[in-house]
Amino acid sequence: MAANLPTQVQGGVGVTEPGISHEEHLHHDDHHHDQHWLFKYVFSTDHKVIAKQFLITGIFWAILGGTLSSLFRLQLGWPEATLEWLTPVFGKWIEAGKLSPDFYLALVTMHGTIMVFFVLTAGLSGTFSNFLIPLQIGARDMASGFMNMLSYWFFFVSGIIMFASMFIETGPAAAGWTIYPPLSALPQAIPGSGLGMTMWLVSMALFIVSQLLGGVNYITTIINLRTRGMSLSKMPLTIWSFFLTAILGLLSFPVLLSAALLLIFDRSFGTSFFLSDIYIAGQALNNTGGSPILFQHLFWFLGHPEVYIVIMPAMGMVSEILATNARKPIFGYRAMIGSLLGISLLSFVVWAHHMFVTGMNPFLGSVFMFLTLIIAVPSAVKTFNWLATLWRGNIRFTSAMLFSIGFVSLFISGGLTGIILGNAALDIQMHNTYFVVAHFHLVMGSSAFFGLFAGVYHWFPKMFGRMMDEKLGYIHFWLTFIGVYLVFMPMHYVGIAGFPRRYYAWTGFDSFSQFADLNKFISVAAILAFFAQFVFVFNFFYSIFRGRRATENPWRSTTLEWTTPVIPGHGNWPGEIPAVYRWPYDYSKPGAEDDFIPQNVPFSKTQSSNLPYESEME
Amino acid sequence: MTALGILLVLVLLLVVFGLLFRLQILTSIFSGSSARDFGMSNRVNAVLLILFMVIGGAAFAWSFGDNFNKMNPPIASVHGHATERMFWTTMIIIGIVFVLTQIALFVYSYKYQHKEGRRAYFFPHNNKIEIIWTVIPAIVMAGLVFAGWKEWTRITGPAPKDSVVLEVMGKQFNWLVRYPGADQKLGVVNYRMIDATNEFGFDLTDKSGLDDFVAGEIHVPKGHPVLLKIRSRDVLHAVYMPHFRVQMYAVPGMPTKFWFTPTKTTDEMRAQLGNPKFNYELACNQICGRGHFAMKLNIVVDEPDDYVAWYAQQKSFSEQNPDVLASFKQKEEKLVVKEAAAVATPATKASL
To answer: Where is the Cytochrome oxidase subunit I profile domain (chain A) (predicted)?
Structure first.
């Protein structure tokens, strides 16, 4: 064990040596190695600090992403209204009192990019993989604290570049978050494909580096640094989901990098990977032989696993929180792992369902339709298992629990329409309509956000040693839950009617002339739901400083992170790392004294509740 | 000034909320209700969850019914009827699952809310149940896949030999339409030949292109298969014709196609909808730039006879643009002269 421990922790202080006593450890900390604040809070190699850095950066990006969506919802809800009052902020992007169409597309693009990558990938899995992996598997820190720090700072720099791209003259990337060439390759086609697109690509390249550094670390840590007794079949589902998420990221992000590099080549060095037979702005380009469809294959080879990268950590955390607060073991632990494995595997072979009507060979369409609809089975199993976990439980509605229940509800609502979209014959009509927008905002957008909120409410006490305010949590939950449904359910109607996405206005078409009221309604709901998030932001920052003090294990949970001190220091456990004897879901076990038995309690101490075969065990 | 005033009011409001919040916390600590309150807030949330299900479910059902007629674009193609049936069948199936699972979720949440002294039922797994709810979705999905696959292969299969052929080309930011003319053969095009007049890039040295004509809107005959050949000359676009349930990307450098059979003329549809201004529309459905939202083309479905008459009236591109034709003739002649010269020179030399 000792050989695997990171030596970088505390700049080589011997805190990680096993057997070191509690007192000695504190002694070290207090007198000899008071870290400079810069290394304690900024360039920290401690996984808990890095997790908080990811979280707070993620919150910043989420607010920005939400603001952008409110802006374009203004345009969609009130296409006739004057937005002159925004001129002081946006200058020339307001044309004749309205958002310029170019700016509208930039808003849509940046909203997607920010939410998918910066919030739901980095903010969600960056936060909780970092925070929970060492704590739940019983490790002092990540395998490489230094790489972990680099992972955050690559993300930070990537964010700076993306942020800066919003302030340049030609505006940020505006070709949709999927940046399909040739639109994204040719500055003549749209102003956002000038410098803005270059910055988008550079930013994403750095982001991918950050993801890979993080991913390698998560995988290594989970494989090598588990505490004594923590076999794979005793790992909490959170860890399983982070583990598989990291593997997905490691295998798919490099493909996006390759797509980005080839696009950079096409943009700047005159190659023709994605360009062919183009006449634009009065000029025939020399590029021939490239294929825009190739880019889509490369993009979605990441893009589809990406949605599972977003949702799987949320699934893991929700499983954990449902079990803890229902005071019941998660139903079908092994089936839950199996379905995660199934989803992970299948997520690599369904990408072309985003491309049924791109002109791809229809036979390929058939194959991908088949594979896509198979993935519904493990998703269904997960849902049924969550429901079975609630059945005959003894449920405490903490804020985290409410968000977890909300997650399941949204996952069902959004997931089911995937069965329509995965069917190639039906996708002909639905492709790129608001039906798709409604589908993915429910199933991966809102659900993942709910998972994120659930995680923050649940693990906040371990992060900051204080509790978040429950009443504000309830208010936040109910406003958000109702808001999300009010926004996205009506969007299905608009989608069935065939409204295309990324439209600045539908007023030019008779086919899309109905539903002006509904669009207004959606906009109102969206903007209100967005403002409701400030309840959370207030609660979060207020509670860091003024929240009620937490106890070591406020939710009476079984996993290892709750065996640490209220605020775990460097190395997480002051003394020896606890050993693990049982699975993480011994809630309400018959015969047990309490309604939970932590993972580090040996069977020898729980004779009254042991199942027959368990009495033989340690 | 007003803005400043509004800002000030907002800030004050926030301060008031902050104070109220703080006061609420302090009172709850002093009265001790923060410790006792767990049962109460638990009940409230459980009731809210049930209310959410009942009221939310009712509101959803009502609004869905209320908007149902508005959300279905009338169908005007043969395969459209088939996919529409499949769409609503699938919707019913997922609707049933939606209702059952949501009810289970909210009812369980309510029913099994925390009660003092009760213990949750230790129920870690049950292989039989798990096999059942793995197999049943698998069977349902297999059925849906099979139906979808059959329809998909039929729709994307080869177009009938006697299809009416026309070409739609996307550009920033409108659609161009080309018909093959009397010979029923689309002439060769080359993107390097494109200019302001020759928007398609006709290569008029190809004889089959001489009778091709360009149209301002799409005309197709009712009841006859129509094969759309789709191209783009700059960025990606997508041909989206919601009434015909047709969608296919327009890709620069890679021609695509889609065939369908219209079932109702524009006039019939106008009569059916009671809207004399109705037009079938073609929209762009792949982000293509500033004017993406305005890339519209009207489609007219004619009675077959009217279509034939319309077709016969059209003048070919080469006829309408004699200069373009002339410029190609010139080029061709130059080429011929050059070739002749190239052949002639050695011959003359030899004869000397």
So the answer is: 31-605
Tell if the CB–CB gap between B112 and A497 is shorter than 8 Å: no
Q: Report the Cα–Cα distance between both ends of chain A, in Å, rounded.
A: 20
The answer to whether A390 contacts B112, with C-beta atoms less than 8 Å apart, is yes
**pLDDT at site B345:** 55
Q: Are residues B185 and B218 in the same domain?
A: yes
Of the candidates B215, B219, B218, the residue with the CA atom closest to the CA atom of residue B308: B219
The whole-number average pLDDT for the span A326-332 is: 95
> Domains in chain B: how many in total?
2
Q: Do B50 and B190 belong together in one domain?
A: no
Whether B286 and B236 have beta carbons less than 8 Å apart is answered as: yes
Please give the pLDDT value at position B347: 47
Q: Are residues B189 and B222 in the same domain?
A: yes
The interface residues of chain B toward chain A in range 165-194, judged by CB-CB distance below 8 A, are 171-172, 191-192, 194
Neighboring chain B residues of A338 at a CB cutoff of 8 Å: none
Residue B56 near residue A481, CB atoms below 8 Å: no
| Residues in chain A closer than 8 A to B252 (CB atoms) | 182, 275-278, 292
Res B36: pLDDT = 58
Whether the CB-CB separation of A254 and A180 falls below 8 Å is answered with no
CA dihedral A519, A525, A528, A529 (to 10 degrees): -120
CATH superfamily for domain A20-563: Cytochrome c oxidase-like, subunit I domain (1.20.210.10)
DSSP B250: E
**How close is the nearest chain A Cα to the Cα of B312, in Å?**
30
Burial of B169 (0-12, 13-18, 19+ CB in 10 A): buried
Amino acid at A491: M
Number of helical H runs and strand E runs in chain B: 9, 10
Cβ burial, residue A183 (10 Å; 0-12/13-18/19+)? buried
The full set of domain ranges for chain A reads: 20-563
Residues B260 and B309 grouped into a single domain: yes
pLDDT score of A448 more than 80: yes
Section A47-70 average pLDDT? 96
Q: Indicate if the pLDDT at residue A320 is higher than 50.
A: yes
The 10s digit of each residue's pLDDT in A384-398 is: 999 999 999 999 999
Q: How many CB atoms lie within 10 A of CB A101?
A: 21
Range of the domain at B137: 40-114+129-157
Residue range A555-602, pLDDT digits in tens: 999 999 999 999 999 899 999 999 999 999 999 999 988 899 999 999
Helix (H) or strand (E) holding A253: helix A237-268
Q: What is the DSSP string of B147-206?
A: HHHHHHHHHHSPPPTT-EEEEEEEETTEEEEEE-TTTT-PPPB-GGG--SS-TT-B-TTS
Put simply, the answer to whether A393 touches B112 (Cβ < 8 Å) is: yes
Q: Which two tokens stand for residue A230?
A: 């923590």
A-contacting residues in B 31-90 (Cβ below 8 Å): 34, 38, 41-42, 45-46, 48-49, 52, 56, 60, 63-64, 67, 70-73, 82-83, 86-87, 90
B307-338 pLDDT, tens digit per residue, is: 999 999 999 999 999 999 999 888 878 777 77
- Please count the CA atoms within 13 angstroms of the CA of A218 that sit on its side-chain side: 31
- The answer to whether A606 and A592 have CB atoms below 8 angstroms apart is yes
Q: How is B32-83 classified by DSSP, letter by letter?
A: THHHHTHHHHHHHHHHHHHHHHHHHHHHHHHHHHHHHHHHSPPP-BHHHHHH
Asked whether residue B346 is assigned to any structural domain, the reply reads: no
